[in-house]
Write a structure and sequence with these properties.
mainly alpha, Alpha-Beta Plaits, 7 helices, 200 residues, elongated, 0% strand
Amino acid sequence: MIKFGSRSELSFELRCRHASRDLHSGNLGGVVPNPIWTLVHLLSTMKNADGEITIDRFHDDIEPPLKEDLAAVERLPLDIAALMRNLDLARLDAPKERPFYERLCFRPTLTINGFHCAVLWRAAQGQEPLLVPSGLGSLPSYVFTKILGFPAFETPYANHDEANHAPNENLELSCFHSGIRTGAALLYELGLLQLSEREA
């Protein structure tokens, strides 16, 4: 095999930032814009469902193949069915009518290489708690509440600006100790509740 050229490559990186730091989706999801979705919507405008790259002037400098080029690819071996079986593919990329070697030799591609993305009771705290109607995170509590049939509660241990799961996630020791007091108070009150129910 003698190869006479290459399609070459142009790489670029898109960055999007909304908030000043990474956020936990359970705390602020649906409130603060998600940079990944912003990028997804942007990228979706660059190539349509028919497989056509829609970036303005993207194709301006493409040189059409010579007749010798077309004759050469006609002589290249090709077994698309074997390729699809080997890769366990159900289909090829759109547009499906575009010839195989025209894609590989003469047409540019637009490829996404990856994403990086960087979301109690008065007894323990000495103040009235804030009541939130629904939880701010997604937890595996259904294992206990739905499968085992046990009620469950969550005790937060971290400060409000802990930057959940971000590279700079942090935990103040005072909040950690406060969370322990809250958990202990909850367990104590639940124990009293169970005791009163038995006596009743």
